[in-house]
Structures are given as structure tokens and as C-alpha cells.
Design goal:
alpha+beta; nine-stranded antiparallel beta sheet; 9 strands; 32% strand; globular
């Protein structure tokens, strides 16, 4: 029988897909209120990998990945997805959403996305939220899966998440110094 251990905290991030009418700084401010200060942002890039959101959000969509300073328990992912859905509703216009916020986390071995959509490769967590192992860290780099979204497969986005992971590992080392003394 394996020994049950405390799971270390994780590095939260969000992927924000937004229409040209959205002021991304306002979204970032709301997310900082919800989580903690932002500690890194990817480049803003054109989100032209799919037309999935265009009917609701229009054309010319852009996307940015953002990570947060404070490490938190992985268990917050369910509440975070529910909260980011509420933020999407705050910025909704009469024609529909203007922003899509997909939260997730990075730990040493993987990148997890939260979603409300069930597929064979997703695990149900709670309250209508599923977890998707979107990237796996192997041989010194994040590796994609057959279901990994196209923009998460782009070299500059993988490089961004690898940098976030490095920051996370440094933070985790500090966390362990203060939290695992008696174990």
C-alpha cells in the first residue's frame, strides 16, 4: 500500500481568448482580485487556430497566457473554473461572450486544463468540471498529446510554459523548505 502524501501546491495560469473590443487589462485586474498578482504573461497572439468561437465572439480574436504568483492547492481548480465562467459573464454583451477564460495549472510533471466538456481523455473532478492533461513534461520539455489544442503546440507557447514551470520549481523549493520540515 502506498503512503498518502500531501500534494504540493501548483502554479495557476489562465488562457484568455478575447475579442478586439475587450480591454485585456480589465480582465487581468479581475483575475488578480480572484487569485494573486500576475507574475508572467505570454505574447498576445492572433487566435486563428479554429473558428469555434467566431459565431459568438466575432473575428479577429486574440489570446494570451497569464500565470499567477501565489502557489495554491490543485483542488482550487474546480472553484477557479466556475469563477472564471462568472468573469466571462461579467464581460458578456448582448450578442454573447467577448472573452473566454480557460484556467489550469502547472506542476512538475504536467499542465492541466479545466473544462466543462467531457471526453474520453478527461477526468471528472466535481461540480461539472473536468481535468485535461494537456501537456506532459518529459525529457526536459513539455510534450503534446493527440488532443492538445493547436495553439498549445506552438513552440513559443511551449517555451512560455517551460519558463513558467522553471519559476514554479523555484517557488516549490522555497515552499518545501517551510512546509515539509516535519515530514
Amino acid at each position: 500500500m502506498g503512503k498518502i502524501k500531501v500534494y504540493p501546491p501548483v502554479k495557476l495560469f489562465v488562457a484568455i481568448t478575447f475579442s478586439p473590443i475587450v480591454q485585456i487589462d480589465k480582465i487581468c485586474h479581475r483575475l488578480e482580485q480572484l487569485l494573486s498578482p500576475i507574475d508572467s504573461k505570454s505574447i498576445v497572439y492572433p487566435f486563428n487556430f479554429t473558428t469555434y468561437y467566431e459565431t459568438e465572439m466575432g473575428k479577429g480574436l486574440r489570446k494570451q497566457m497569464i500565470s499567477f504568483k501565489e502557489l495554491l492547492p490543485a483542488e482550487v481548480l474546480v472553484d477557479l473554473k466556475i469563477s472564471t465562467n462568472a468573469i466571462e459573464d461579467e464581460f458578456r454583451k448582448t450578442h454573447g461572450r467577448t472573452v473566454n477564460i480557460d484556467p489550469g495549472y502547472i506542476c512538475s510533471a504536467k499542465l492541466i486544463l479545466a473544462t466543462t466538456k467531457d471526453y474520453d481523455h478527461r477526468v471528472y473532478l466535481n461540480r461539472g468540471i473536468f481535468a485535461d492533461v494537456h501537456l506532459r513534461f518529459r525529457n526536459g520539455h513539455f510534450q503534446t498529446n493527440p488532443w492538445t489544442y493547436p495553439d498549445y503546440q506552438q513552440p513559443q507557447i511551449i517555451a512560455y510554459f517551460e519558463e513558467v514551470r522553471k519559476v514554479y520549481l523555484n517557488q516549490l523549493t522555497e515552499w518545501k523548505k517551510f512546509n515539509l520540515k516535519d515530514q
